[in-house]
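Dear colleague,

Following up on yesterday's call, I've attached the two folding results inline so they're easy to grep. Please treat them as preliminary; we haven't cross-checked anything against experimental data yet. The first protein's sequence and structure tokens come first.
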Amino acid sequence: PRIDMADFREVFAKAKHIAIITGAGVSAESGVPTFRGAGGFWRKWQAQELATPEAFARNPSRVWEFYHYRREVMLSKHPNPAHIAIAECERRLSKQGRSVVVITQNIDELHRKAGTKHLLEIHGSLFKTRCTNCGNVAANYKSPICPALAGKGAPDPETEDATIPVEDLPQCEEDGCNGLLRPHVVWFGETLDPDILTEVEKELEICDLCLVVGTSSVVYPAAMFAPQVSARGVPVAEFNMEATPSTNRFRFHFPGPCGTTLPPALARHQTEIIS
């Protein structure tokens, strides 16, 4: 792959449908904790021990404490230059009859905060709930999400579980339901929403430029998506801290933090006609 920005900019100037696949690396620069890898603990647990249907069935109070903590942390985080460059690019190109779609595995809504409109959140969102009884999905930005969680969720290992009774955990507000709510996120061992996957497939079939940002293309979900775009002969540009085993399948690779590499890549090209 090439690290030739001038060449990338020529491809970018001609592209009519740009698909941008983003992962945790985009949010890392906003200071969003991932709970993965060394040091990635909340209390004594890593995300994969809490973000499962089994953990929720066993201990919904503990899982809600974890997600309450993550929601509260996110309220103080802001989009970084990468999120802003993507949203700005979409806004500008839409006035030229060109489209940008963001396909993200992030659940933090920082793309939305930055102003991205055409957003496919394949893993759901920290700020949506789903009823375990009636299935209703609702946006929820309350802080705290329910009175019983106020001041709970502290991450340090000495913290005792709050052991909140189920009836005091977040409850469905649909008429007469009162079912237990869960975070509307895709947990380990769960499948992706087939409707969202269908939308993703449609976008990848029409895109004429694909960017993979802050996720290595060997790691799901980019691993599912970017190689099939590349196989169609569509240019793929990777913006990532380090090269990955599939980097050599792509036309471009730009190493470094996305907040630094992405803004110049997506800035207005001299050939763009701005009405």
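Below is the second protein, in the same order (sequence, then structure):
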Amino acid sequence: MNDYIHNYFAWTWGLDGTYNSSRLYSTQDYATILIIQYYRQLKALYNLGGRKVALFGLGQLGCTPFIVKNWGYKGKPCSDIFSDAEYTFNYRLKTLVDGLNKLKPDARFTFINSTSILQKKEGKL
């Protein structure tokens, strides 16, 4: 989440331009870069003996009160630009987890969809 909040979307906070990731990469390209790095780290963890790994997807970036207050649009409960980035990353992470489970059958990688955990279920809280 920090890679998005403090790097990719740093321009939205009015930071001094230290990170200009969103000007260099589309949300799809940035997600790919992060997933490649994640794969390298997971491969190293596996090589060190890690066999049971839980990977949490991004939470609802676009639905946090700060984001909604500053970038909400027309009464929508979430900001689309942040939610789109979250969805793209989570989709790629799930694909990575599925691939790792096929590639490393002696290990178990589990994707935990934080977004669906936090969503209000119809008729329930």
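For the second protein, one point worth flagging: The chain has a mean pLDDT of 84.

Best wishes,
A.L.
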